């Protein structure tokens, strides 16, 4: 769970950097949340980050303005510290209700990164900590047993391992299949949840 939290913090940091939102203030906030890196994080994060970035590039509209897509609050406003973790949890429950795959896990990280962008753009930097804690709860409730059975976080490296920024043909083919499946699932989840979540939250 601690490794998952650390991966989440690192992913949020990378996502905010890609969006041009990683200011000194945001960096300081993330440093107060992040736990010491382990060798697992050092090994796994590059693969997670590259795959997440590819998902975001293929369907940028899906992983941006996430809170607006999932709720009917004006402009997707995150009204309190629990809103972003709740939205993430609702996506996770729907995403993992049939089975867990690496593609779905990477998609969830991408959704989390999108929610982090929403938090920063709305000036709610203190919400980032609760978002990371929300991801930790999802890992504990929905992913721990699957991760144990699938080689832990290092199991991701068996599916695709980036060498710098280069992929082999097999790596790209694997990525395409995973990303295509994940994008289809996450867009279906957003459509399903978006229409029903407003009445649940508000």
TrEMBL record:
One of its GO terms (biological process) is release of cytochrome c from mitochondria. SMART domains: BCL. The chain crosses the membrane at residues 169-190. Residues 48-153 form the Bcl-2 Bcl-2 homology region 1-3 domain. The keyword Membrane applies. It holds the Pfam family Bcl-2. One of its GO terms (cellular component) is mitochondrial outer membrane. CDD domains: Bcl-2_like. SUPFAM superfamilies: Bcl-2 inhibitors of programmed cell death (SSF56854). One of its GO terms (molecular function) is BH domain binding. This is Putative apoptosis regulator protein of the bcl-2 family. It comes from Tabanus bromius (Band-eyed brown horse fly).
